[in-house]
Every structure is written in C-alpha cells, then in structure tokens.
Amino acid sequence: MKCKTFKGTKENLKEVCDKLGVRGKMELGPVIDTVNAVLDNIRINGDKAVLEYTEKFDGVKFEANQMKVTPEEIEDAKSKIDSKLYEVIKKAAENIRIFHEKQKEEGFMMETGKGSTIGVKVRPLAVAGVYVPGGTAPLPSTVLMDVIPASVAGVKRIVFCTPPRKDGTVDPAILVAADIAGASEIYKVGGAQAIAAMAYGTETIPRVDKICGPGNIFVNTAKRLVYGQVDIDMFAGPSEILIIADDSAVPEFVAADMLSQAEHDKIASAIVLTTSQKLADEVLEAVDRRSDAASRNAILAQSLETYCAIIVCDDIDTAINFSEELAPEHLELCVENSDEVLNKINNAGAVFIGNYTPEPLGDYFAGPNHTLPTSGTARFFSPLNTGDFYKKMSVLQFNEESLKDVYKDVALFADSEGLTCHAAAVRVRFED
After folding, report:
1. 257 and 359 Cβ atoms separated by less than 8 Å
2. Backbone angles phi and psi of 168, in degrees to 5
3. Running DSSP on this structure, what letter comes out for residue 249?
4. How far is it, in rounded angstroms, from Cα 138 to Cα 238?
5. CB of 180 within 8 A of CB of 93?
6. pTM
7. Which position among 240, 263, 324, 329 bears the catalytic label?
8. Residues 186-237 pLDDT 10s
C-alpha cells in the first residue's frame, strides 16, 4: 500500500510531473456518448426522461410532483439530524457567509470629459443551479460552499438538485444544509440527468443560468457538454493535495493530511515535496501505518499506489517549481519560512500555512470556499466565489459634444477594418 518516492531535481521536473499528471488523460469517448444520449433525451422529453433515469439509476419510482422536496420533508430532516451537527453546520455557514460577503462587487461609473460617462453595472444571475451528490458519503459542507456564494451575490432563485436514497428521501444533513444556506427549491434528482434538467429546463425543474457543484465522471462530463447553454463553475477532477515540507514539519501531521485527500477516491492524489530524506522516510512509515487502520483503506490502497508520491527535492526552490508545474487544488506549506515561500506561489486553489492549518479546516469550517480548481487548472481557474454569480454590463453614455470630439477617430478605425457602415453610423450624426 506504499506510495512512490522520487528524487526531485530541476532536470527531471517535467518527467516526474508527467508521471503524476496521468489522471487528466483518461479516455472519455464512451462516457461522452452515454451522457450525450441523456442530454438529448431530457432536452426532448423533459420530466418523463428524468423520471425514467431516476428509476433506472437510483431505484426510485416518482411521479413528477414528487421530485420537489416539500417544507414538511425539510422539517422532518431537522428532527432527524444530530443536534450538535446542526449547530456546527450553522456555525460553518456563518463563517462561509462572512467570508463571501467580503467578495461583493459594486461596479463603477466614470466621467471621461465633455459629458461622456462609461462604466460597469453588476447584476446577480437570475437563476443558479447547484448539484451535490449523495451516494455513500453525503456532503453537506459542499452544499454550504456552493449555495451561500450565490445567496450572498443576490441570486433570487437557487435551484438545488441531489439524488434520492433508495426510499425516496434525501439525506437529512443535505436537506438541512440546503435550507440553512438559502436554496430556494430542492429536487430529488441526481446524475447527468440533473445537470441536463437544469441546463434545458423541464416541466417541473426550471432552466438555470449557471450550474455549480461536484459529481462523478458522468456529472462532470455533462457539465462540460452543456457549457455554453449555461455557464458552469469549473471543469472539476479528482481531489488532490500537495504538501511542501521541511525539517520543521511533523511527520504524523503530514501523513494524516495526505490521507485526508487520498480517501476521497481511488484516483485522488496526495504528494509531498520535501528537502528532508529523514522526513520522507518518517512520513512514508506513518502513511503505511495509518492507511492500514483507516475505514476507507480499500480506496486508500489504490490511491496511494497509483497517484500518491513523496518527492525529495534538492532545495525549497526546486519544490516550489514542482508545485507551480502541478498547480494543486490544495497546497500546504509546512515550512519555516512560509511567507517567503508563499510569495513565490502563483498556481494553487487554496494555500494552508503552517503545521496547524490542516486542509480539512478549509473543507468544512474556516470560511474560504472548498470548491477549487483541480488537475492543474489552478493555472487559470479560481475558487468558487461570490463573483461567479454576477454578470456585468458595460454602460456608455455620450452627448453630442463628447461624440463630436472623437467621431472622426472612430470612423477612421472602422474604415481601416473595412466596416464602412460602422463609420457611417458615427459620421451621419455630424456630416451631411
């Protein structure tokens, strides 16, 4: 069950990173064909197709009017959830809301002289869609992370979809979290069919403007395929953590943090970059011991063997170069000069600094969003945030004087592109 160890040098950086990046090179052809069939069926047949897929994949036979969660079901969920967990969910929601309130945008208007004004108006999306999987590990934390930013942005209608359990109910913690976070309506629909229903709309489920949330390979492929019909949050992949550690790191902490992500999925990734061979050996021993005793050790065994590694680097700068190349979802800095290292980091979804800032703190409670770019996309994607639920409109207002001052420049530019009607549209206002 041991993960791999490598020697990390400036010369082999590309080679080692390529070995660790194979998760993004899976063959999706058959998955795309399957998902396209689901999308087409729901686009054409609406509720009827959604109900058929719910029976086929979730084993639940609904009528259309049973898909939407009722207020009574939410109240029943509140009575079933552990009271201490209920209070923790509320505390986490408050922390997440406070953090995302700081991300609000207001736009601007500016005068450019002679009566002309230009600027940007910020408007919330009208309808947002959030998907959260059920399965063996319901994720109420993800409910908070995806619904609250939309609520803070001022989205009036937040449509929430999650698959039903075999008895036709939804996990109580999921329902309670959705209610606390501010979901407007909740539907018991899962998988690619939920993505299709929110993208195209059905008789029961409204069409949304943007879809957010994690899922399996079919859900994520569906999100990719409907992008353009609606917006999506990001192209999500399996979870990952990268830890840069020196002699100041605690081996047991590092091992525990590796396993916290490796247990997500058999293709989850956990990588340590260290300048210390001694630390590498101690972490390797702790990972082996802890994974054997873990409840999800079957998943850990596959993840550790295939997608996890400890890389002993020549120096901290080499470790930073590896990190920048991999652009991890979660990056922990368990090093003495953390501020100096942080200043050199550009590519990471979220950075956790010091021996007492473990990644699960961000997953559940601290406030920053845990919906993060994966598979190297932190080079160009950002964490889910309040701004993701805005759209922006440019606004221009010129009067006769201010347009007269620039119209010849505009016309000349238009003429240079061969668009004579563009040029005429400004000249007509001042020339016979």
Report:
1. yes
2. 85, 5
3. S
4. 16
5. yes
6. 0.92
7. 329
8. 999 999 999 999 999 999 999 999 999 998 889 999 999 999 999 999 887 7
